[in-house]
Design brief:
The complex is a heterodimer of chains A (732) and B (127).
Chain A (H helix, E strand, L loop, with lengths): L4 H6 L10 H21 L4 H24 L4 H30 L3 H24 L4 E7 L2 E6 L4 H24 L3 H17 L4 H8 L7 H17 L6 H33 L3 H50 L3 H16 L4 E7 L4 E4 L11 E3 L3 H9 L3 E2 H4 L9 H11 L3 E7 L2 E8 L10 H82 L5 H29 L9 E4 H18 L3 E5 L6 E4 L1 H21 L5 E9 L2 E8 L6 H4 L19 H11 L3 E7 L3 E9 L5 H4 L2
Parallel strand pairs in A: 10-12
Antiparallel strand pairs in A: 1-2, 3-4, 3-8, 4-5, 6-7, 7-8, 9-11, 12-13, 13-15, 14-15
Chain B lengths: L3 E5 L3 H13 L3 E5 L2 H10 L4 E5 L7 H14 L7 E5 L4 H10 L3 E4 L4 H15 L1
Parallel strand pairs in B: 1-2, 1-3, 3-4, 4-5
Helix pairs in contact in B: 2-3
Classes of the chains: A alpha+beta (732), B alpha/beta (127).
């Protein structure tokens, strides 16, 4: 019975189960798993894709070869071989060529040869499909059916041989030309692997000489693929353990599905062979089982290996959430440290942050006493490299990964001195803000790909957060410094204004003090001049006058000193009686006012008017207001009164200072509280009096207002909250 | 006959001292502590010299001098020479004192020798 081709390919019945097909098919599945792993877990470079295609070709070759072994008849075997197996076989050559060309770095120059190889091999494939000149009916060996190559097919073997030697030559060339020791190692590994792969030719022995030796080429092929896969992943920060575990579990679980299905088919075969409907049902059921496997079981297996990853994702999202509430670099550093410690269990974490003032990287999370460096210079070679590449460096990889070839020595020194095994740069806008060093894990496990993924997320977030906090800290300290400066300047201004007041009063003071001095001098000189001819009676009277006058002088000087005293020396805020303040103020300036024929009329009803404030400052306010009133009266060329009223209402204390002077025009009133605004002559104050009054009053939560009619006079009104408690109980 | 001097100052301390000094020096002295008092004294008696402070509450020395002068002019009495003394005078007060063309202008505190010599000089020449 001759079967039509689709039947020969897809109808399983009639196949002779042979154990010899099992190893070859199992290995083919492993190779498939390796190919998939490289496809999904590494960068999709041309070289890697070539390798994946090489794996797929091998799988096709070996898996279908299993069917060839167990074919029911030579025709079926030949058809399967010609269409599927041989397609896998011919694909090995160009894909390996492509891979080797990429590995040797000669891809550009080799491209046309690679394409030529593809064309040649595919031509052979199509020729072998359409003619009998290439592959002929298989022989039956003890392991099963095995096809035979006609002499024309040696063309294919020749192509393979040429490509093989070309590969070896190119790799040798690349090896010699390469300067980086790491890359040299990688190329040598590939070269030796390919050389070893030559042993797969043992399969062809049976095809050429028909020797009865079990074709073990699949083992060579498996080893070759393992070695090549290793050459790809060894030089990447790649979690090889996880990959191996995953691959084994995928294969095992996949076999767990495929073997029962296969056995079920074998067992149910006698019952369903007559009914294509039942076969269809079986086929559909199998499909759903496979689908179930791919959609449900395989993801679960992945999840087992990625559970830690999920956990780390939780930690990093928690970290990002915490960043929002953080203030200050110190708290941030602490958060980064605890997050890394909780997630990866390093023995210790060192965080270095760039310090503008020091011009280097300063250890931010530990004391400087540890026996590792606590600061790095800005132009440290390794840190510069980190800044440019923004890459996490793992001590175990920088020695073997070609990417780190340029900085191998520098990195070695860095890791030596820091005793770290992982360096995580914190880069933002091409600026290295800091670096995190991690020591080995406390459980001695290695850092794996999942850990690095976690660190990558963390480093980006941390860089942004550190940048923000540094800016914030900078602004904060600047604001603090400026505020302090302003406070200082204001203090100085208040003092300056005070001294200016003293200056304007100095004329009056001179007059005031010169009177007692006159008395003293006169009497003393009299005593000296007339002591000879006059008696003691005269002396006593003079001495009394001298004493009185001296006391006066002392009082005047004291008054002046009290007023000019720096506010710093009596800055405390306490319950202050405004009546007391008023009395002291009047005592200070009444003499001056009397000399100018100005009288102060005080209207007070209560014993005390307590507010919270500073006696000295409030005295300055009243002095300013009274002296302004005096100036207004003098400017009007009048003699007059200043009316001062103290009153209480609605828990407020009000002080009114009213004069009958010139008054203030509307234009001027708008500016009188502005600093340095003055209508007085040069030398009569700084123009700060009312400005300072206002700031002092505002300091004690009071208000100051003015009401004035030009030509009639002005009223200044200050209002404070009354301090309700009895003065005596508070003022200790 | 001893010359008669009127001392005007709001400070009793000053008038007291001056009175004592001038009396000791052989003059007859009377004192007033404000403008009103001074006018009263001028009307009651004839003085040979007036020594007055400038800055005083109420009427100041300049006003008092002017008042006395106009009184003397009205009542056709002899002019009395004046000495102004001051502890401190503002620019404009000083200016008006100059304009008054008083006989002498003495700053407080002064040496008694200076005052006595000035007094002697004025009274000596006027008599």
């Amino acid at each position: 019975m001759t079967l039509s081709m689709p039947n020969a390919l897809f109808q399983f019945y009639g196949f002779q189960f042979t154990w010899h097909a099992i190893p070859i098919m199992a290995v083919s599945l492993l190779i498939l798993a390796i190919g998939l792993m490289i496809l999904f877990e590494t960068k999709r470079t041309v070289g890697n894709i070539a390798f994946v295609l090489f794996c797929f070709s091998s799988t096709l070759w070996l898996f279908t070869m299993g069917f060839v072994y167990s074919s029911p008849n030579p025709e079926t075997a030949l058809r399967i071989y010609k269409t599927l197996t041989f397609f896998g076989v011919i694909n090995l050559t160009p894909n390996l060529y492509l891979f080797a060309a990429c590995a040797s770095g000669l891809m550009q120059r080799q491209l046309k040869w690679v394409i030529l190889t593809y064309i040649t091999t595919y031509s052979i494939y199509f020729l072998s499909l359409t003619t009998d000149k290439f592959i002929t009916a298989p022989h039956l060996y003890y392991w099963g059916l095995y096809p035979h190559y006609e002499p024309l097919n040696y063309l294919f073997l020749l192509t393979f041989a040429i490509v093989f030697f070309a590969n070896q030559a190119h790799l040798k060339l690349a090896f010699e030309r390469e300067e980086s020791a790491i890359k040299k190692k990688q190329i040598r590994l590939i070269k030796l692997s390919l050389l070893f792969g030559l042993t797969a030719f043992i399969d062809f022995a049976a095809k050429i000489w028909m020797v009865n030796i079990y074709p073990t080429g699949f083992i060579s092929m498996f080893i070759l693929i393992c070695l090549l896969a290793y050459s790809i992943i060894r030089y990447k920060a790649f979690d090889i353990e996880t990959v191996i575990h995953k691959t084994i579990l995928w294969t095992a679980s996949f076999l767990l599905i495929i073997i029962p299905v296969f056995l079920a088919y074998r067992l149910s075969f006698p019952y369903i062979k007559e009914s294509s409907a039942l076969q269809m049902i079986f086929g559909v059921t199998s499909f759903f089982i496979f689908a179930f496997y791919l959609r449900v079981i395989q993801p679960k297996i992945d999840h087992v290996f990625q559970r830690r990853k999920a956990n780390l994702e939780e930690i990093s999202s928690q970290f990002i959430g915490d960043l929002v509430h953080l203030k200050g670099v110190d708290n941030l550093i602490r958060l980064i440290e605890t997050t890394i410690t909780n997630a990866l269990y390093p023995r210790w974490v060192d965080i270095f942050v760039y310090d503008e003032r020091q011009g280097g990287y300063q250890a931010a999370n530990r004391s400087t006493t540890a026996n590792r460096p606590s600061r790095f210079l800005k132009d440290d070679a390794f840190l510069k490299w980190l800044n440019q590449n923004d890459k996490i460096v793992y001590r175990e990889f920088f020695e073997i990964d070609p990417e780190y070839a340029d900085i191998k020595d520098v990195a070695a020194r860095y890791f030596e001195s820091t005793q770290a095994v992982v360096a995580v740069p914190l880069v933002l806008n091409e600026r290295l803000l800091g670096v995190i060093n991690l020591e080995k894990k406390a459980n001695l496990k290695r850092y794996n790909a999942v850990d690095f993924q976690f660190l990558t997320t963390l480093k980006n977030q941390a860089a942004i957060a550190i940048s923000n906090s540094l800016i914030y800290q900078n602004i904060e300290s600047q604001v603090k410094a400026r505020t302090a400066e302003l406070v200082e300047v204001q203090k100085q201004l208040i003092q300056a204004e005070k001294l200016a007041t003293v200056g304007t009063l100095s004329g009056g003071v001179a007059h005031e003090i010169n009177n007692p001095l006159t008395a003293i001098l006169t009497n003393v000189q009299m005593l000296l001049a007339f002591s000879d001819d006059e008696g003691a009676k005269m002396d006593k009277e003079s001495l009394q006058l001298i004493e009185e006058a001296t006391q006066r002088c002392r009082t005047i000087v004291q008054k002046l000193m009290t007023y000019a005293k720096k506010p710093l020396e009596s800055e405390q805020v306490s319950v202050t009686d405004l009546l007391d303040v008023l009395k002291k103020t009047i005592a200070f300036i009444s003499y001056q006012l009397e000399q100018d024929s100005i009288k102060i009329v005080v209207d007070v009803k209560d014993d005390s008017y307590c507010v919270l404030g500073n006696h000295n400052e409030l005295e300055q306010v009243l002095t300013n207001l009274i002296l302004n009133a005096r100036d207004a009266i003098l400017a009007a060329n009048k003699k007059g009164n200043i009316y001062i009223t103290l009153s209480k209402s609605n828990h407020h204390v009000t002080v009114k200072v009213k004069d009958e002077g010139t008054g203030i025009s509307k234009e001027v009133i708008a500016k009188i509280f502005d600093p340095f605004f003055t209508t007085k002559d040069v030398g009569k104050g700084l123009g700060l009096g009312l400005s300072i009054c206002q700031s002092i009053v505002a300091k004690y939560k009071g208000t100051i207002t003015v009401d004035s009619k030009p030509g009639k006079g002005s009223v200044f009104e200050i209002k404070f909250s009354e301090y309700a408690q009895k003065k005596a109980t508070v003022k200790v | 006959m001893a010359k008669k001097i009127l001392v005007i100052d709001d400070e009793q301390m000053v008038t007291g001292s001056l009175t004592k000094l001038l009396k000791k020096s052989g003059y007859e002295v009377d004192a007033a502590n404000n403008g009103v008092d001074a006018m009263k004294k001028v009307k009651e008696a004839d003085f040979d010299l007036i020594i007055s402070d400038i800055r005083m509450p109420g009427e100041d020395g300049i006003e008092i001098v002017k008042k006395i002068r106009s009184f003397l002019k009205e009542s056709k009495k002899n002019i009395i020479p004046e000495i102004l003394i001051t502890g401190y005078a503002s620019e404009d007060k000083y200016q008006s004192a100059i304009e008054l063309q008083v006989r002498a202008y003495i700053n407080k505190p002064f040496d008694i020798k200076e005052l006595l010599e000035t007094v002697k000089e004025i009274l000596g020449t006027s008599s």
